[in-house]
Write a structure and sequence with these properties.
By secondary structure, this protein is of the alpha+beta class. Helices cover about 45% and strands about 20% of the residues.
Amino acid sequence: MRTLRNLFFFSLLCMAAWRLQLEHQQLHPGSHARISSVLEQAKLRLPDVHVAGESEQIYFAPTTNLEEVDISLIDHAQQRIQVAMYAFTDRTIAQALARAASRGVEVSIYRDRAQFQEEQARHGQVLSILSHRPNVHIRVKGGDDLMHQKAMLVDGEVLRDGSGNWSVSAARYQDNQVSVTHSPQQIGAFERDFIAMWSRPDNLLEQ
């Protein structure tokens, strides 16, 4: 009886997942094919990808250079990129964002105040790469509590999340993981949270 009950609930979950995927394709015609293409290209470049499901892929550093995953997603952006990143010292990723902005992609970057100020004190080059560029917007959390997210949403359709900051050491040498998903539920949750963080009245407006 327990086995039959478990099989029944598993079938319900499969049907629900199929319906959500169908609804997403109806709301965003063609997006599934484009997203799948982006993920497949990344998968071909990075053969050590660990697939968690049809809508999600997981990569682990140092086996995989996570920098390549992020740059591939950035290079495929067409409309907007929303970033919440605790540490950001990787100049190559900054240059990829600058390229995206130069082709008309709106780039919004939300940072932790203490980490941002520490990077500036060390004369980091990321801000100089991105400063005063059209389509690049940077806001810094005003409060003392950490903004500890390491996430990026591309075109409202592809969410990158995980433990990896945007630094060379995090991408190439540390033990980190990054997941890439087009789950509507996860994307919706992040986008709502990003808008709430971006709209805080005590934010420091960098540019």
